[in-house]
Amino acid sequence: MSNKPILEVEKLNVGYQTKDGEIHAVQDVSFKVFSNEVFGIAGESGCGKSTLIKAIMRLLPENGKMDAHSIKYKDQKIDRMSENIFRNEVLWAQISLVPQSAMNSLNPVYKVGEQIVEAIQAHTSQGKKEARERVEELFDVVGLQSEFMDSFPHEFSGGMRQRAMIAMALALDPGLIIMDEPTTGLDVLVQEKILRRIREIRKQIRSSIILITHDIAVIAEMSDRIAVMYGKQSQALKTLTPQSQ
Predict the structure, then answer these.
(1) pLDDT over 90 at 79, yes or no
(2) Is the pTM of this model over 0.90?
(3) For the chain, which terminus, N or C, has the lower number of CB atoms within 10 Å?
(4) What ranges make up the beta strands (E) of 19-140?
(5) CA–CA distance, 52 with 12 (Å, rounded to integer)
(6) How many Cβ atoms sit within 10 Å of the Cβ of residue 20?
C-alpha cells in the first residue's frame, strides 16, 4: 500500500431539503483512501453511507445539497470541476461505482454486453470490435462466460447481474472503484462467491476500492483499513485495521 492518498475528503456535509426543513444526512466527514488498498466504510442502515458516496459522485437527488472543504482525487480538486468535465473525465474513467442494488441497475431492454460496450465507447476511441474484446476480458475477470454478453439482464441470476456491474465498473481501468453494499439482496452462498471474486479481482488490478456495507464481518474480512459512520448526523470515526478490532 502506497503512502500517497488517491482520494482525500475533508469536512464533507450533505443535507436534504424537505417540507419540514433541512435534514442533515452527513456532517463533517473526512477520510483518505490510499493507492492499492481496500478502504471499508461500515455503519448501520440509514447512517449516511450511500449518501456520502452519492455526494462524492455527484449523484444526489435534486433536493440534496453538498459542500466540502475539499474533495481531491489524485490532487485534482474534483469538487471544483464543472459538471461536464467531471462526467466526461472523472466519472467511470477515473472513479467508478457499483451502486447499491446493482442487480437492478442494468437496462432491461439492452443486452448486457452491449451496455458495457456502450460505456467503453462513450469514454474512449475504441471501435466496437475492440470494445467487445475488452468486455470478453472483463467477463473472464469477474467469472462470467463470454457467451452471456449477448443475453438480457432477465436471463441473468442475481449474482450474475452483480458480477456484470462489477465488470462495467472495471471497464475503463479506473484508479478507484466504489462498491456500495455489493452483497445486499444475495443469498449467503452467492455473497461468498461475490466476495471471493472481489478478492481475486483485487490481485489482478491496481485500483483502490472503497467497500461500503453494514456487515462488519465482510468489512473485517476484506478491508485494509476501516472507517465507521454512526448516528443521525453521521461522521467517519478513526480508521483502524481489521486486526486491531
Answers:
(1) yes
(2) no
(3) C
(4) 21-34, 38-43, 64-73, 76-77, 95-98
(5) 8
(6) 6
